[in-house]
Every structure is written in structure tokens, then in C-alpha cells.
Write a structure and sequence with these properties.
Blueprint (H helix, E strand, L loop, with lengths): L1 H24 L33 E4 L10 H11 L22 E7 L11 H16 L5 E8 L15 H14 L1 H14 L5 E7 L1 H20 L8 E2 L8 E5 L9 H4 L7 E2 L6
Parallel strand pairs: 1-3, 2-3, 2-4, 4-6, 5-7
Helix pairs in contact: 2-5, 4-6, 5-6
Length: 280
């Protein structure tokens, strides 16, 4: 009886500790904005319509633990930064821009940070990403506009090590919840759709750790879908060419099982192939 009582006590203690960890490790979670499907323009500083393009600020998109936008206008700001000055927007609502600014191709570089990182100015991931964007801008200052996009989420428990490492499973669950919500898919797809309007624009998406886990979920299934839709329909034929959501998806130390890549690896076939000279 005593051993059974002790076991029950330990189970209750473990359960209480687990629930406490879930709440405590996510105590810094962000709150969702009221508008999720559109940006409510307010005609105040920061309104994407009033921002004169091009800008050099780092574009920040914040997500909650449920994969909701903290501020939907952050995505709109990114899209306006990529969309300004297009000839086909004459007569339609469009972003304000400096008429003296040359209409150069845009290079969108998106980064989804991983576990133990956030959007604070001294965060190593943010500092290094901003440094990368600065170097790209210097290199392409005469031929491209480089737009840096930093996707941030509640990936940091804000505890000293080794206590921070105890948040692994909680933050993994947060990352999967965000992936299931589809927000990263929406961000990547929206940017890709704008980029595709101009054949000279480019889009590179990067993710690290759990950020790579989310980015992979957001891009792999759409890539499989597009590949299967382009299948010739008979053995030995050529796939119809298509352009993926991003021109390049780079996963840095991705935190997911290798088996999740199997479905993409299976797309490499010895029968049907893509034609080397087919126009995209």
C-alpha cells in the first residue's frame, strides 16, 4: 500500500511539474492581433500605405504560439516593399514610393529563427541575419533591392543554461502548432506570389532548427503538389516545368527526422524527367 501511494504521489508530482513547465516555458508568448485576414489601415505612422518605398528597415513578422499574426500589417508591409513601382499597378491601390528611386529587381531573403532565439536586437540570429542583409545590399546596391524578412516566434524560454535546454519539447510543440496553423505557409506563398509577377525578382527562404522544421512544412507539401500536377501522365515523359514558391529553400541544422524527407526524395525518378531546355 505504501509503495502504491508513493507511486501515485510521484505521478501526481510529475504531472503537476509537466503542466507547470508548459505554462512557465511559454510565459513570454505573444498575443494575436484582432485582424488576421487583412491589414486594417489606420492612417498613422507605420501604416504600410503611408510608408515611402524603398526602405532599408528589417521587416519583422511576429507569430503567436498558435500560429496567428501578432500584427497582420507586418505581412502587408513586406508585400508592399516587394510590390512597389510595378507598371501593372497603375490605377490600382499600391504602395507609395519615391519617384526618383530606380526600379530595380528585388531580392527577398526570409529567415525563420530556431530554438533559443527571438527578435531582440542583441539576439545572435537577428544580429547575424541583419549583417547578411547589409552585405547583400552592399554587393547589389546598383542592381537589386534586397529585402530582409525576419520571422519570429516564442522560441526562447529566457532562462539560464542548462534550464533553457529543458524547454526543448515545449518549443518543439510550439513549432508544430505554428506549422499546423499555416501562417508560415501563408507568408512564404504570399511572398512567392509577388516575386513571380516579375521574372527578374528572386526569393530565398532560410530556416534554422525548429524554424527549419516550420519552413520545411510550409514548402515541402506545396512542392510535392506542384510536382505531381506537372506529371506527364505516362511513363518516360517529361514533367511540365513550374517555378517553386521560393527560388531556394535552405534548411540549417533542421530539427526534424530524416524520414520526413522521404516523400521529396521519392520524387527523383528514373523514368519521367524534367526537360533541360523547357522554358519556365
Amino acid at each position: 500500500m505504501k509503495s502504491a501511494g508513493l507511486l501515485l504521489f510521484l505521478l501526481i508530482l510529475w504531472g503537476a511539474g509537466y503542466l507547470f513547465a508548459l505554462v512557465y516555458f511559454d510565459r513570454n508568448q505573444l498575443l494575436a492581433g484582432k485582424e488576421q485576414w487583412h491589414c486594417r489601415f489606420r492612417n498613422v505612422p507605420g501604416d504600410p500605405r503611408l510608408t515611402v518605398r524603398p526602405t532599408t528597415s528589417l521587416k519583422m513578422i511576429r507569430l503567436t504560439n498558435l500560429g496567428e499574426f501578432v500584427e497582420r500589417c507586418e505581412l502587408t508591409d513586406v508585400l508592399y516593399e516587394l510590390n512597389w513601382g510595378r507598371d501593372d499597378q497603375v490605377g490600382h491601390p499600391h504602395a507609395e514610393f519615391d519617384p526618383k528611386a530606380p526600379k530595380l529587381p528585388k531580392l527577398a531573403v526570409l529567415y525563420v529563427h530556431g530554438w533559443k532565439h527571438d527578435a531582440s536586437k542583441n539576439d545572435q540570429n537577428r544580429v547575424e541575419f541583419e549583417s547578411l542583409i547589409d552585405r547583400l545590399r552592399e554587393k547589389h546596391k546598383t542592381d537589386k533591392y534586397v529585402v530582409g524578412i525576419y520571422v519570429t516566434w516564442n522560441a526562447k524560454a529566457d532562462l539560464p543554461e542548462p534550464l533553457e535546454s529543458l524547454s526543448f519539447w515545449v518549443k518543439k510543440a510550439d513549432a508544430d502548432r505554428i506549422s499546423q496553423g499555416g501562417a508560415v505557409t501563408k507568408i512564404v506563398s504570399s511572398i512567392g506570389a509577388v516575386i513571380k509577377q516579375n521574372g527578374h525578382d528572386q526569393f530565398i527562404a532560410l530556416g534554422h532548427s525548429f524554424g527549419a522544421r516550420m519552413l520545411y512544412s510550409a514548402t515541402a507539401q506545396s512542392l510535392v503538389n506542384q510536382t505531381e500536377f506537372s506529371h506527364p501522365g505516362y511513363n518516360g515523359g517529361h514533367y511540365k516545368p513550374f517555378r517553386g514558391t521560393a527560388d531556394s529553400v535552405i534548411l540549417l541544422n533542421p530539427a526534424f527526422e530524416a524520414s520526413r524527407y522521404t516523400v521529396l526524395d521519392d520524387l527523383t525518378r528514373s523514368g519521367e524527367k524534367f526537360s533541360w531546355d523547357a522554358p519556365i
